[in-house]
Write a structure and sequence with these properties.
With 114 residues, this protein is mostly helical. Helix content is 47%, strand content 7%. Helix 2 runs antiparallel to helix 3. The longest helix is centred in the last third of the chain and has 31 residues.
């Protein structure tokens, strides 16, 4: 479409603050998902900042834009440019961290019951 002065940009956003999670896995868009309070808390970018960065990418005619905060951006770069290192790192550290977080939630919920 370049001959018609139409450009296409691929935008890859990371976690962005929105109400979208409230309606995950519901049959009716007007129903809120009951389990949203148990979703993991992530460092999320504001929707305004994400929109500004997308507009900056369009203004600069970039073909692809990765929009996210660290550590997610670092993980994207590592996955893109060092896939073997990323796989090793994710297996060794990320799975351990997820396991710890799950264990912490289980123990804190047991403490509340006591």
């Amino acid at each position: 479409m370049a001959e018609h002065n139409i450009h296409v940009q691929t935008v890859l956003p990371g976690p962005v603050e929105s109400n979208l999670a409230l309606h995950y896995f519901t049959e009716n868009i007007n129903d809120e998902h009951k389990g949203t309070q148990n979703l993991p808390k992530l460092e999320m970018m504001s929707t305004e900042r994400c929109a500004k960065l997308m507009a900056t990418g369009m203004a600069n005619n970039l073909d692809e834009v990765w929009i996210t905060e660290n550590p997610f951006l670092l993980m994207l770069y590592m996955n893109q440019y060092f896939p073997n290192l990323y796989r090793w790192f994710s297996k060794k550290f990320l799975m351990e961290r997820i396991g710890r977080r799950t264990k912490d939630k289980t123990s804190s919920s047991e403490d509340k019951k006591s």
